[in-house]
Amino acid sequence: MQDDLTSQGFRPLNRAFNQVFRPGRLSLGLVLPLERYASSAVPDMAHHVERAQLAEQLGFAALWLRDVPFNVPSFGDAGQVFDPFVYLGALAALTQQIALGVASVVLPLRHPAHVAKAAASADVLSGGRLLLGVASGDRPDEYPALNMGYADRGARFRDSFSYIRAMAQSFPRADSAQGRLSGGIDMLPKPVAGQLPLLITGGSQQAPDWLARHGDGWITYPRDLAAQARAVATYRQGIQAAGLADRPVMQSLYVDLVADPEAPPRPIHLGFQSGTGYLRRYLTGLQDIGINHVALNLRFTSAEISPSLHRLAQEVLPDFTR
Description:
Layout: H1 15-20, E1 27-31, H2 48-58, E2 62-65, H3 84-94, E3 99-106, H4 112-125, E4 130-135, H5 142-145, H6 153-167, E5 173-176, E6 179-182, E7 198-201, H7 208-213, E8 217-220, H8 225-241, E9 249-257, E10 266-268, E11 271-274, H9 276-289, E12 293-297, H10 305-315
């Protein structure tokens, strides 16, 4: 169970952050595209708008995009195909309430000025519904294509992170390898909450104490409950040691729902196949160890997408809403 490390609550940020992340509670989101494409690396993106809107209507907390600049065949997944910031703009116009997240923008492959401008624009256009995950990247093939070094991506990640933070200020001053901000120019728009909610993914080539001191939350990967409990506790102990207010933790999870609600789990890539009964109990276990949000990925589901969304909404979601 959680201890008093989470008793301080989370510092309020924008609308998305405040509705998705609640101390001691877990919310559920969905990874786009909402499509079955287990046998292909590239989804066809059919019905992607209708399914995103259905997810909002059913009460899911967030929709999550990924930043996949190139289709790398050895990786086996081209993501949602569309550029995440262009897609965020479309989703901002096509939805009303649901949070819109990116998990995660590969900072070393983009100039931070462009990331800050695009992200703040999406935040304002959506009415404060943006959550921005950031990462150092894990596909070495992409870096030569952009004339970027792979080995030094950790240093560029730190520089980009600081640059994006600075851009939220009026006429910012900053000096880094990414560029010099003299205080004589400004960038608009500014994020709705005065800063972008930046969630750091994995280790991002940084030391644990750096992770604890920076970012507005942590995105991690699925582990067994005991290992995940240790990872969450270590992260939050670092935050506490730094004298900072608590921050949320979220993870992804691939799921394949079968018809029998009490079917036991069977491992699949970064998740499991099971009935809704086991999924509900597993998510409750994650909530108990301090996970605040889970982004469900239905890529490998054997059932049709729309019925699966309805089943999740009817049999699982009620346990993880206000």
